[in-house]
Amino acid sequence: MSTLCIQGLQASVGGKQILHGIDLTVSSGEVHVVMGPNGAGKTTLSSVVMGKPGYKVLAGSVTLDDIDVLALPAWQRAQAGLHLVMQYPSEVGGVSLDHVMQEALIARGRSIDGLDQLLGDEAVRIGLSPELLHRSLNVDFSGGEKKRNETLQLAVLEPRIAILDELDSGLDIDALRDCARRVEDLTNERGMGALVITHYNRLLEELHPDAIHILVKGRIVASGGPELADQLERDGYAAFSPS
Ligand code: ADP
Ligand code: MG
After folding, report:
1. Which residues surround ligand 2, an ion (CB under 5 A)?
2. Was domain 29-53+81-240 assigned CATH 3.30.70.100?
3. Is 39 close to ligand 1, i.e. is its CB under 6 Å away?
4. Structure pTM?
C-alpha cells in the first residue's frame, strides 16, 4: 500500500505563480481525477510532482509514503514508483520502446527475463502493433499509437502511482476506451494508484473515479464523487470559481 500526499503545494513557472496551495492524496488502487479548464495549472501540477526542470516550488510538500519526493531528481522519483504519462509524449529518435523498457527495469533493479514476451502480450492487449516496439519511440506515431505506447509502459513498469496528464488528448474514441480500460484494470489488478488529469468527462466512462477534484486558477475549488463530473457537464467551469 502506497500513498502520494500533496500538501499545500504552491509553485511558479516563468516567474508567475500557477499553483496556489494544492492538497491531494492518492493511495494504491484509487483513481483521483483532476478536472480543470485550459490554463488552470493541470500540467504544472503534474510537472512539479514528477520533477520537470523549470518549475519552482514555493511552498508545501509532496511525499510518497516516507519519501520526500521534492528532494529527488525526476529519475529517482521514477525509481521510487512515480510515473508521468505526459500530455504530449516526447519523440525520441534512435531509441526504441523495448530498449527503454529494458533500461528502465534494470535501473529499478528488476529482472528483464521474459520481457520480450511481456511486451508482445501487452502490445496485443492495448492494441498496439508489435512492430512499433522496435521503432524509434513515438517518432511518426499517430496520436492513438503514442498513448497506447505510453499506457503499455504503465503495465510493464508497474508504478505505485501514475499521473496521467490528459490521456485523452489526441485520441480517437477507440484508443481512448482501450487506454482508459487498461488503466482501470491496472488499478484493480495491480493496485496502481492513478491521478488522472483531464478536462473532459468522456474519459470517465471507462475509468471509475473514487474522487473528482476541480482545479481552477491553481486551486482545488471542489472535491466530491462522480456526481461532480455531471454537475460540471451541466453547468460548466464558470459555476466553480475560486473563493
Ligand atoms: P493546463 O494544463 O491546466 O491547461 P498549464 O499548467 O499548462 O495549464 O498552464 C498554467 C498556466 O501556466 C498558463 O497560464 C500557462 O500559460 C502558464 N505557463 C505554463 N508553462 C509556462 C512557462 N514555461 N512559462 C510561463 N508560463 C507558463
Ligand atoms: Mg495541460
Report:
1. 42-43
2. no
3. yes
4. 0.95
